[in-house]
User: Fold this.
Amino acid sequence: MSMWWSLHLRREAASVPLARRLLIGTMETAGVDPDVSYDLSVALSEACANAVEHGGAQVPEGAPGAYRVTAYLDGEKCRIEVADSGPGFVPVGAPAPDTAEHGRGLFLIQELADHVHFGNKPGRGGAVISFDKILKWREDTPLVTA
Assistant:
């Protein structure tokens, strides 16, 4: 089984739960194990929150800019990509302390996913976070072929 979707979202806080709910719904329908779905949904929320907060300047009319979320479920793996038009990534040091309110999102994504890539888009600029995780399936999954 293979499926994908892509969203073009405004850089507003309300877009984060929208992307998360769509991912969880897709995975539930496909029959992905709920623990795997949860891990990926938290990682996606962190990536989207990062794009909302750091993903670019306001457009001239004062409205927020946009960012893109793409999710691929292909065979035994899910890959998620979040791309924005901000200044891109700068090297970071150690994770923020547990009591900090900011600065832990990228480290959390690395803990929840199997493979993570942080990069900068060539040309126009912007950051891209892509991460993937090997999927486990519920036993009653109708879409997985035996």
About this structure: The chain has a mean pLDDT of 86. Residues 34-54 form the longest helix (21 residues). The radius of gyration is 16 Å.
